[in-house]
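Readers outside the structure-tokenisation community will struggle with the description of the input data as it stands. I therefore recommend that a typical entry be quoted early in the introduction. An entry of this sort, consisting of the sequence and the corresponding backbone structure tokens, reads as follows:
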Amino acid sequence: MKINDIFNDEESKNLLEKWLEFREEDLCHMEEEDKKHLLNFDNYAKRILKNTTKEGYNYVSKQFEFMHDDFIDYCSHWNDKYYMTGFSDAIKLIVSVLK
């Protein structure tokens, strides 16, 4: 049996989702070091909007909303892909060693 045949992508995804749900409380807990690395998007947006003309304020504000949503979508996609690959590889490695 090949390692790739142990779990298909859907099985790996389901296992990862269950594991993330189980770990959600711990994953959401931020320590002081974590807080130092937060992206302060709202602060940057406020400072830029403060220096934007009245005529351009609504446009720039709306663009910040689009940029924020796109950035969150981008991060979610790549984080999911990264964790899915790592989790799947780890499960396959463990199962192959146990056989």
Summary: The chain is about 80% helix and 0% strand.
